[in-house]
Batch of 2 targets.
Target 1
Amino acid sequence: MSLPKINPTKTEAWKALEKHFQETKMLQMQDVFSKDPGRADRFKIEWQDFYLDYSKNKITDETLSLLINLAEEVKLKEAINQQFSGKKINETENREVLHTALRDFENTKPEVKATLQKMERFSEEIINGSHKGFTGKVITDVVNIGIGGSHLGPEMVAEALQFYRNHLKIHFIANIDGDSVAETLKKLNPETTLFIVVSKSFTTQETIANASVVKKWFLKNASEADIEKHFVAVSANVEVAKEFGISEENIFPMKDWVGGRFSLWSSVGLSICCSIGFNNFEELLKGAFEMDKHFKNEDFNKNIPVVLALLSVWYNNFFNAESEAIVAYSQYLHKLVPYLQQAVMESNGKSVDRNGNKIDYQTGTIVWGNVGSNSQHAYFQLLHQGTKLIPTDFIGFSEPLHGNSYNHNILMANFFAQTQALWEGTHAEKVENPFKFFEGNKPTNSILIKKLTPKNLGSLIAIYEHKLFVQGIIWNIFSYDQWGVELGKTVAKGTLTAMEKNNPSLVKNPSTRKLLAQFLKKSQ
Ligand code: F6P
């Protein structure tokens, strides 16, 4: 059974939405709350520690019901069931998509259990100091060497859960930029550092090159036999990891049904385990599992990922909004946006539909943002008074982790005030000066969470994973492949060969050829 392949623009619901859009697009909704006192109660979803308020959106009850009709017409429910039951919905790579199986505590796959046990044993030995380095010292630093999905998730979670961290220092080497590698190595002692080489394919140029540089650095002070105490790998390509010099017992396997950008729940999360301990890692998985059940079982109108996805489709395809911002009012979440950029844009940046046809409607949104309140002093001007429509998700927590309620109240007052100011503007006031006029009518979603715990973070990440899946289903694209990153990799290989041969003429494009000639002149 394969995913439904329905062109959304040909559905009855889409046609009805187009008509509805023409009727409602000019609505100025800034004072809708005074006309409709029940609105804030109707357009909200309360679930466990989460409270989603989506009442400050350019929608009416009819909009929501038409969007739900669209989800039904494109057979979203069937697609969700196919994903969870392990059908090969990543058709262009002929793979199942089962990151949800990594956190399924009711039907745990034996191989998932075995890997989790191995992660638990190993991370405990690193944390409690029973695993010693080659000179008998305990491990003090852990370095994750990996890029893309093998970096962004672990780093985002390790940063987000900093409050729960132990004594180990965690570092990330991702960029092939040698300066960045050197800066990290400067901080490390080979005797007390553990390197985790993370690459699902174990062929990613940046990761393998960086791991080789690090290994060379390590071997300046140690012998080949010492490698096993300091290098472990996470990969689906065990043979190549072994060829790199990592012993089989030091390889944490991953399955090809785990996509890179959805892999933090797998052995890719080993650096997270070392950093916050296995129990907290398990809590993270449990939070995602809870959200999986909500997503799978809840009606669409009370389903957080579904509602967020439908709102995003509404703005993307009817209002022609090109981007959406995400602003987390928590410094701990400062890596959330880069993480989501890969998850969302690598998944839904597609222009061919599931039938193989060129698409004539908009797909993947551009995701950007940063943390609040910093963002208010950077790009919020454009949100308030710019010409572009940028729907924005605000994420915040009711309780601070350090108990500093003075700062926390100021932080969250800004969160609430910004969503209100964006929505209401100054339209109801008499503002003589046009430069000081705020139009309002700017949509936001507010995701208010009780507290930043490993469990709640797991649920939050899973919300966005499922949201992007719903969007991909509606847009009739394959969200789980990433062919678009391959061409650049191939061209880079050819360019590197031309560099190594000191021969720019091997490059066809005249602009690139001249750039290369200039580079080679300067670098000699
Ligand atoms: O270049 C894109 C990509 O394939 C991502 O999808 C993936 O997360 C990343 O590269 C790293 O891949 P790997 O884990 O195989 O090194």
Note: The chain has three domains: 8-96+298-426+436-475, 104-282, 485-523.
Target 2
Amino acid sequence: MIPVNSVLQVGLFPEVMQKQIDQRLKTIHLLDPQAQPPSGEFTGILIRSNTQLPQGLLEQIPSIRMVATCGVGYDNLPLAYLKAHGIKASNTPGVLNDAVCELAIGMLFGLLRRIPQAQEFVKSSAWSKAPFVTTTTLAGKCVGIAGMGRIGQDLAARLESFKVQIAYTGPTRKNVPYEYYPNIQALAKACDVLFLACPASPETEKMVGAEVLEALGPMGYLINIARGSVVDEGALLVALQQKKIAGAALDVFEDEPNPNSGFLSLDNVLLTPHIGSATAETRELMTNLAISNLEAFYNQQPLLTEVKIKLE
Ligand code: 8YV
């Protein structure tokens, strides 16, 4: 049982998540993570993966012993501080794979078949003057996935039905039947569509820069469902503006919710506001899993999905 008002809820939550929270526990809500925390004997924090947990907040509340994040990524947490202070953390892997993979595939076809532009073409009555541009077929292409984790594997399994060759890079996986490339440069050279499905980490920081984009080439497409930090956005903008790659679909950006304005005027992009897991069913599952982790902590049981903090 989670003691009333022992959990500090940090940041803004969508209505469907807030409804689950209000049904299952009584939190004190700190809407602005940077604001002075309310007084209280808090021992747990509930936050979303898209909200940075300031280390300063933890220093101001030394009684915190557990942080539950709603989301699979936990790059929003000050991992070194949590580890140094013996603070447990949990995330919500697995329950959002369907939603993220479905969006990724929607972005893939939206990008290759220029669906947003096609709708604009119809709405603007341009159709009466000329046929819409010819686009490209996915079947027969090579699709690369950087990051063959839970989401990457789930995405690959779905992609198999589209008659594509699948390849990947990142940590090797024994149980996958796809071609492996030792680095993202080699994968970008070999594939026509490159998905980014890797965690944000020091190793993946700006992993996709000018050289990788050059390797992807003028017929290549980039789709980022990971984190904005994985891409050098300056290099991507130049590659898109100079048509060094055919196009990019981005659900994540370095500065959310204020993406680089250079993307907004481009015709060879498809942009979505970090909605990979944003379905009602998935957000409910994530929230309930996060709360179940908090319950496990307060009941002194093993967490359901504990974040194993590994630091260099
Ligand atoms: C969260 C995310 O799903 O799961 C992640 O890592 O990228 C986020 O979109 C979302 O913030 C949950 O509310």
Note: The CA atoms of residues 72 and 92 lie 5 Å apart.
